[in-house]
UniProtKB/TrEMBL annotation:
This is Uncharacterized protein. Keywords: Cell membrane, Glycoprotein, GPI-anchor, Lipoprotein, Membrane, Signal. InterPro entries: RGM, RGM_C, RGM_N. Residues 2-65 form the Repulsive guidance molecule N-terminal domain. The keyword Membrane applies. It is found in: Cell membrane. GO terms for biological process: BMP signaling pathway. It comes from Octopus vulgaris (Common octopus). GO terms for cellular component: plasma membrane; side of membrane.
Length: 234
């Protein structure tokens, strides 16, 4: 990914550049040009699109033109190569998908393809294994109704000092909301991004999780809202 600050102040002059550009604008514009150069290689990366949006917002905030002087990045300080990741953290097993669906009051289809229906308020665990916990919170859909609906989904990835984090990693979704990052703002954890939010669509986010030479697991968190939700609440 492009560096945010360029230590080499050698300016590559463009034809219509302004001599009054501040160093802040030149740094932002240099980063913006670099981001566009790596678009093809970063397609599908949530971190890439987050950084692209952040730089664009900063340029608009400070009224920096998109065309103008940029720093000569060939003179930028090169970082030393990173240490190779631990073999336990890059193990890639054979993939197999299982589906667990939750909808309605709630109606639950388990990983064993069993269907359950119940009315429940408050928080309860949907998944709880040695790697993560998925907590579901239900609330009543109306004051005069005993029916419930899921209002909150919390994913807690357990501590893994070698391949993840020394603390529990938390991702929380609310009604009509799928955040772009874990709680705390990070989009990945681990020396080789073993735990990473890979991509986001309108109502789905994908989390890649590799855990200690057991298997590679991808978790998809999907949030679907009825088009008649407002009418139903009334």
């Amino acid at each position: 990914m492009c560096q945010k600050h360029w230590p080499a102040y050698h300016i590559s002059r463009n034809k219509d550049s302004s001599n009054t550009d501040s160093h802040s604008c030149i740094s932002l514009r240099t980063t913006w040009h670099c981001i566009h150069k790596v678009t093809r290689g970063c397609a599908g990366s949530l971190e890439y699109y987050t950084e692209k949006s952040r730089v664009k917002s900063q340029m608009e905030l400070y009224k920096c033109p998109f065309e103008g002087d940029i720093y000569n990045t060939t003179n930028a300080i090169q970082r030393p190569p990173a240490h190779p990741p631990d073999p336990e953290c890059i193990y890639n097993g054979k993939g197999a998908y299982k589906h667990c669906g939750l909808f309605g009051d709630p109606h639950l289809r388990t990983f064993d393809h069993k269907c359950q229906t119940c009315k429940i308020e408050g928080a309860w665990p949907l998944v709880n294994n040695k790697h993560l916990i998925v907590m579901v919170t239900n609330k009543r859909v109306g004051l005069d109704s005993s029916a419930t609906a899921t209002s909150l989904l919390t994913v807690m990835i357990k501590r893994n000092d070698k391949c993840g984090s020394t603390n529990v990693i938390t991702y929380v979704t609310h009604e009509r909301s799928l955040p772009n990052a874990f709680d705390g703002g990070a989009t990945h954890y681990g020396p080789g991004k073993e735990i990473e939010l890979k991509e986001k669509q309108r109502n789905k986010i994908k989390c890649n999780l590799i855990q200690r030479k057991t298997r590679q697991t991808e978790y998809f968190v999907r949030l679907s809202v009825s088009s008649n939700l407002k009418a139903e609440k009334k």
